[in-house]
Structures are given as C-alpha cells and as structure tokens.
Amino acid sequence: MDNSQQNAQQSLRRAVVVAGNRIPFARAGGAYASASNQDMLTAAIDGLVARAGISGERLGAVAGGAVLKHSRDFNLTREAVLGSALDPATPAFDVQMACATGMETVSTISNKIRTGQIEAGIAGGVDSASDAPIAVSEGLRRALLQLQRAKTTTQKLKALKNLRPGDLVPSAPTTGEPRTGLSMGEHQALTTQQWDVSREDQDHIAAASHQNLAAAYDRGFFDDLVTPFKGVSRDNNMRADSTVEKLSTLKPVFGKKLSGEATMTAGNSTPLTDGASAVLLTSEDWAAEHHLAPLAEVVDSEAAAVDFVSGHEGLLMAPAYAVPRLLARQGVTLQDMDLIEIHEAFASTVLAIMAAWESEQFCRDRLGLSEPVGTVDRSKLNVNGSSLAAGHPFAATGGRIVASTAKELAARAKAEGRPQTALISVCAAGGQGVAMILRSV
Amino acid sequence: MTRSPDQLPTVPEHYELVEPAAKPNLGLLYATAGVSAAGGFASDAAARALPALRKSPLGKVLPGSLLHRGGDRLRASLDLPRVAHVVEGLVVDPEWHEKFCRVVHARPRSLAPGSSETAVFSGALHSVAFPVAMSVLTRQDFPLPVMGMVHLTNTVQHVMDVAVGEELTATAWTENLRSHRAGTVVDAVVTLTRTDGTVAWAGRSGYLAKGLTAAIAGEDARAGEDEPTSSSLGAPFNAPQQTAQWSLRADTGRQYAGVSGDYNPIHLSGASAKALGMKGAIAHGMYTASRALAATAVPAEVPFSWSVEFAAPVVLPATVSVSVHDHGRREHWESSRVIAWDPERNRPHLELAVEPL
C-alpha cells in the first residue's frame, strides 16, 4: 500500500458486521417455488431486524439485488424495506453484479459507513430460480413494441406481419454468457481442463462442503444466522451423508463435448437455488448505542474482471486476480489469513483458483508477481461449508458468506485470544470477481 | 487466387459493362427453378436493398439457364460471359441493416467516433452485392448450373466503411474459371463503389460446380454437399481452444434468408433441403461467416480483408463449437482467426481469417 492510499484508509472509521440473517436456501422448483424475490428478501431483512432488535429504526441505506429479476421489480430492495419492520423512511437501492451482487452490496454499505455518510445499513441479496421472469421472444417483443407505437390499422397490421410461429415461444433466463453462448458450466469445463483439475479433487471439495455445513448446523452455528421460511429450517440441498465415494458415481454434465475426461457432475457443481440473505453493518458507535456486539470489521474489498470472451482467461477466474491485489494493498499475505472462503460455484472453480495461486508461471505472467501467491491451507477453507452444500441463490451468496465468516471470526478470536483475519473470494458471471478481507474486532 | 492480397479486383479487359437484363429477386429465382414450394417467399431484403430491382416484371426475372436447362448449352465450351453487371443507386436501408445485424449477432457501430451515421457491417454488404452476382450467374450464357453450386471460399476487401443510407454502385462479374478435383470452380466478383468512384468493398466468392458431367446429366441439384471439399481444412482436424458456442435453431436458415434475400431451399426447411439431396436444412455459409466476423475484434476505421473457407455444412439445428482468436486489440490489432466446428463429429465447418489491408 503506498502512502496516499494508507493515509486515505487510516482517515476512515471502521465499518463492522454486527449481525446476519438468511432464510434456508432451497433447491429451485421446490419449497420456495411460489415465493417471489420480494417475499424472500423481506423475510431475510425482517429476520435480521428482529434478531438485532432494531424494529422501527431508520437506517442510512439498504442495498440489495437479484440476478434474475423481473422488470416490475425495478425497486426490489426499497419494496422489501417498505414491507419490512424497518422505518419506511429507510432509503434503499438495488445492485446487480451477477453472483458477486451480495459482496458488492456489503462493500458499498460498509464504504458509506467508513466515510461517515451513514451510521448503519443492511446489505443483502436474493434470487429465485423458481420464480424466474419469463420473457417473450425477441421477435414478439419487437412486434409488440411496434404495435404499441402504431397509430393506424395499416401500421398495426405491419407490426404483426413479421411475427413467426417460433416467436411465440417464451424465453426463460439461462446461465449462458451473452457474448460466448456458452453456459457457465461449459465455461468452467474449459477452465477445469486447462488446469487439469481431477474428478477426485472436485468430489473431495464437494463432500467436505456438505460435511462441514452439516456439522455447523449440528453444533448450532446457524441458530442465529438462519430464520426458517416456508417450513424449511435447513438448506435442503445439504446431504450430511455425502461422501467422495457416492459423488464418484455421478455422471458428468459439463465438458462432455471437450476432448479429455469430463469431470464436472451435478454433485460438484452448485444447483439452481432460491434464497435470500441480509447483513447488518454499522459504525462502532452505532453498534454500542444499540447494545450490539460487533463480529468483524469489513477491512477492504477489491473487484477484478478478466477477458474470458477471447479465451484469454477462464470465466470464473477473476478472484485469482482480485485476491492478490487486495492482499498487496493491505500489506498481508495468504498465509496471514486464518479463514479462507472461496465461493463454490463449482468445486473446480475453487481448485483452479487455488492452483493458479500456487503456479509460479501464472503468478509471474498473469499477476506480475515474482513469486507465487501461495498454497491455501485446506483446514482453513470453507470451514462451515459453502455453496456446493448450501446452494447458491446468486445474489444471496455474498451475504451468506460475510455473515457466517464474521461470526466464525468472532468466535475464534474469543477462543484463541488473538485477532483473526478472513479472506473471501466470490466469482461472478461476466468474468468478474470480488474479494474481501474481514477482521475480528 | 490470381491476385495479390492488396490488389482490388477490377473488371477484366474486354468485358462489357451492362445493366442486368434479368433483374433477379432471389426468392423468385429459386422458386422458378421448380424445386421447392418454399422458394415462394418474396425477398423483402433484396428488394429493399436493391430498389432498382424491385419492380422487375416477373417474366424478365426468370433466369434463362434455369428455365431451359438442356444438355446442349452446358456441353458447349465453358466460356464465361464477358460482361460485368452494373447496378446503380443501391442504398442500405437502416431498418434492414439493424435486422441483419441482429440475426448475425453483429453490433452496428458509428461511421467515425462522434458520427451520427452508422457504418454498414461488412457481412451485410455481401447481401447487398449478392443479388447482383446472382444476376450474372443466372445469365443464359453462364455455363455452369447455379442450383447445387457449393460456396467454397469467400474473400472480402473492406477498404473503407460506407454509411447506412449511402448510395452505392455494384459491379459484378465472373472470372477465373478453373478445374477442381471435385468439379469446376468459378469466382463471382462484386465491387461496391461510392458515388465518387472509389471502391469501398470488394468481394470474391469461389463456387464449385460439383462433378460437371453430373451437372450435364441434369443431376447437379442432387450433388451431396456434406463432405468437406476444401483442402486447407482437411483431416485430421485438431480442434483449437473453444471460446464460444453457437446454438443454431432449426429456423436459422429462414432467419438469414429473411435478411439476406437468399432463399435457396437448401437453407429453408428439412423438407426443402432433402428434396435437394441434403441431410437437412443447412445454415447459409455467409450466415456463419458473418457471425464469425462479428465475433472478432477488428477495430473501427481500419481497412481489412476477411476470407473464409467453408468445409462441412452446418445441418440445422446445430450446436457449433467456436474458437475466436484476436491477435492484438484496438491499435495493436494484427489479425483475427475464427474456427467453427462440429464437436460431435470433430469436423470443421469454417475458418475465417481477418487481416488489415
């Protein structure tokens, strides 16, 4: 960190995580099939408000968002606030940064606090793959718009003349990248092949995710992080009895058309999921005034993006760039981290990013570093499970990870009697990624 | 090719410049070949792009070589007509251009930074030029059968951008008749000239008339197109690193026909294509070429050439694997290469090379 950056950061006050809440994540098309984004986000915010005892409070801002969003939900977060127990005088805004939406809301709200613009705010996100907006086809959409503009009967007929039967088929959202036409899974299959990530390693990551999440539930870790919703009290994608052996029997679903072995299965890829999360961020003063104990400080965050369109870099590899930049700015190393959270979009995403940090060649040629970023100690990785087990309602994932990590940091700092630091890395569609450092307070 | 890459094609000596006698509406052209009812679609795009051709009386549209296809003329010496067809007053319609760009996933860009005018996508200019080239190929004195001809290669010199709405003159002729291991190849050349006389765009399409004897026997239309005919994309094919995927729906041929005016029945439906000996409807080569070109990072305002070689046709619907490789970006751009292939059969569909002129 150079002097000017250091001075700028030192003059800021701290933003701290004081509480988090989410609804259990549910596999798409199941328990929450009829719940809207607004329903779920409101539930997550209300649970948080109840837990923190801030009902009726006017907060400085609420930031939220959804990746799959209907155009009528233009003010999704504000509508959720209006339906919540918060003071209706609480402003809100929507953010959309694909799977990093939740991370970006945490970053934005904490920066508002750090600069003194606000005292307290909520960051969160929601996604429903079940209640997804269905759009009319491009042909029908254009015809309908032309029809709307048409004044005369002739013009109206002309607008409809170009319609083809195929135009009447609605188009549902896909996980395809608009510029490449490849789904996220197919993109990751290219990266998996490039980094030669083995099936066994992927299944190990997946099994650990389920086992860690189940263990965390069993010891009550999520008791003050999750509020039941629609009869669901635990993430219903979780399989406590998941093992590498069971996972190894699944058939590959991505990369089947590539040369070489296809290794990505439904077991080591995240399923489509519904859910919402929210995190309460405040200044230290505001927390003290409201008798809330800070869990962790949001130290800093860094976004990165890569050129995946040309094939120069893998779609989900941006965190491999964001993390080293963030570590350098904070003057810390990977080895200084007590906890490391790498969002499991796919097991192979985690493994490819870790392999990149270990690669001398990658770190030299791509990151301009004289030595590798280093090896991630697996015992510090995703200790309470991650997206492979919990599921991944795109915009809700950031809030899930930040809240769980802040709580784990606080618990460890207390147990070990020394400050604890965590690194969070989340990849996103569009070749983007956000990294963040949290520290116990 | 008989020219150096930087040389623009010019009308050969002794060629006569004429206005085409039969001004073809392509939809009607294929319909009158009597091979498919699907050809009955009218070509709005060609008519719009070619206002001069729009009002052709139906009787004059019928291409003689297709109407009276007898062995006699084909058996005569294979001399190309020494004429160049000149069509003036071609204007690219803005609505048509937007539609064309949507279909081939091209992003229209402004003529120059800050300009309110739109530059015509180079692939769209091919559709402006194509009907004029067809008017030569369907002349009575053109010696090869047009139906069933295989588009092997296409090279374009994009000398300068032209604006949507700008007036252009198309000059089209055939030359360079030569034998090929699978038949006879001819180049159809079209230049697009601005009103000040400068050539803005020149395209050269290599067409193969497969097995000329078969053509003479009247079986040309049934010649199979599904084996690679190009040598440079020959086996064994090593797939490059994939960067993209095209999911082509069954109606891709109809979509492109709607904007290009090329209603060749082999592209329109499974039934009409099978009637011509295809396995099913195949994507237009120029559709895939335009999509490939649109995927490259050719910077604005740089004169460039693009050249495409077609191999196995894309039978619709299809999932096509694509590799786009740009060598340099913006002011550092040196070249681009696109390869599209069938991942199931590991066969190439096309290779596109783009370079600065």
How do the helices and strands line up, and which of them pair or pack?
The complex is a heterodimer of chains A (441) and B (357).
Chain A: H1 3-10, E1 15-22, E2 26-27, H2 37-52, E3 61-64, H3 76-82, E4 92-94, H4 101-114, E5 120-127, H5 138-149, H6 153-161, H7 184-194, H8 199-218, H9 244-247, E6 252-254, E7 264-265, E8 273-283, H10 284-289, E9 296-305, H11 318-330, E10 339-342, H12 347-358, H13 360-365, H14 387-390, H15 397-416, E11 421-428, E12 432-440
Parallel strand pairs in A: 3-4, 3-5, 10-11
Antiparallel strand pairs in A: 1-8, 1-9, 2-8, 5-8, 6-7, 9-12, 11-12
Helix pairs in contact in A: 2-3, 4-15, 5-6, 8-12
Chain B: E1 16-18, H1 26-32, H2 44-49, H3 51-54, H4 58-61, H5 64-67, H6 71-75, E2 83-91, H7 94-103, E3 109-110, E4 118-119, H8 122-137, E5 150-158, E6 167-180, E7 183-194, E8 199-210, H9 212-216, E9 244-248, H10 252-260, H11 270-274, H12 285-294, E10 304-310, E11 318-327, E12 335-342, E13 347-356
Parallel strand pairs in B: 1-2
Antiparallel strand pairs in B: 2-6, 3-4, 5-8, 5-10, 6-7, 7-8, 9-11, 10-13, 11-12, 12-13
